[in-house]
């Protein structure tokens, strides 16, 4: 294995005698933060770009015969397509920095994996989540997700300003990004609904989309709830003048 790759390993253990196990390893290019789609045999028909193409997608079938986000889900469909949402699983995620374990319904565990694969799929809309994928935090709570997504967005604004561009400190662009990602989630869910299988993979996207759809409306409330954490910064700022 190329030592330069960033490896995130998911290990699922289902109750049974003997226990069933599934593994999925995501390997990210350290520069592009994308995963390779080395599929053999050729990708299934439901991954074709023009099948339930997202309403906000600007890709063309000439340049992208297959939807990058759909391609990222092929392996997950093959491994977990038969599972129902409520199946209990113990999921362990290993990265270079830490190991995280959670026992939960498979739909919750898969939503973390699906979100990671989609963000690093090469989809230009989902690509804005690449920084969060690089510092992947599996099974994050809503509060953690708000903290991470807002922090990543504001850091992007810092880099923009360093390059001479205007910085969006009002988070309008972040809200717009979540609106676009909601449309991507809808398109992917429409693709998967035509596949005869279990529903764990589909509900994993539904869970992601519930969070995606709610975040633009809850950012201000969530941020107000954690403002007190930044008191050491604020006391030396304008509030102290």
Brief characterization of the structure:
The protein has 241 residues and is of the alpha+beta class.
Structural summary, described in words:
The protein is of the alpha+beta class. It has one domain (6-240). Helices cover 43% and strands 13% of the residues. The protein contains eight helices and four strands, in the order E-E-H-H-E-E-H-H-H-H-H-H. The protein has helices spanning 68-71, 74-80, 106-119, 130-134, 142-162, 172-192, 200-226, 231-234, and strands at 6-14, 20-28, 88-94, 99-105. A four-stranded antiparallel beta sheet has the order 2-1-3-4, covered by helices on one side. Strand 3 (88-94) and strand 4 form a beta hairpin. It is globular. The protein starts with 5 loop residues before the first strand and ends in a 7-residue tail after the last helix.
Shape: globular
Summed up, the helix count is: 8
**Gap between N and C termini:** 56 Å
The count of DSSP E runs of length 2 or more, i.e. the number of strands, is 4
Strand order of the largest sheet: 2-1-3-4
- The fraction of residues in strands falls at 5-15%
Classify the helix fraction into a percent range. Answer: 40-55%
Flag low-confidence runs: none
């Amino acid at each position: 294995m190329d030592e330069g790759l960033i490896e995130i390993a998911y290990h699922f253990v289902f109750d049974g005698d003997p226990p069933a196990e599934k593994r999925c390893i995501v390997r990210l290019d350290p520069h592009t933060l994308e995963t390779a789609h080395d599929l053999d045999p050729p990708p299934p028909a439901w991954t074709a770009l023009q099948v339930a193409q997202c309403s906000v997608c600007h890709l063309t079938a000439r340049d992208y015969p297959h939807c990058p986000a759909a391609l990222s889900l092929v392996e997950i469909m093959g491994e977990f397509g038969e599972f129902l949402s409520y199946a209990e699983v113990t999921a362990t995620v290993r990265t270079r920095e830490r190991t995280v374990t959670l026992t939960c319904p498979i739909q919750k565990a898969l939503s973390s994996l699906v979100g990671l694969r989609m963000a690093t799929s090469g989809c230009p809309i989902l690509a804005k989540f690449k920084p969060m994928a690089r510092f992947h935090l599996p099974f994050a709570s809503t509060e953690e997700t708000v903290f991470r997504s807002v922090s990543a967005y504001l850091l992007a604004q810092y880099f923009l300003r360093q390059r001479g561009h205007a910085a969006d400190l009002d988070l309008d662009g972040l809200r717009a990004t979540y609106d676009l990602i909601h449309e991507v989630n809808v398109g992917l869910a429409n693709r998967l609904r035509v596949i005869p299988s279990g529903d764990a993979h589909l509900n994993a996207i539904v869970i992601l989309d519930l969070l995606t759809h709610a975040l633009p409306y809850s950012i201000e409330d969530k941020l107000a709830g954690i403002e007190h954490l930044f008191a050491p910064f604020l006391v030396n700022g304008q509030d102290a003048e």
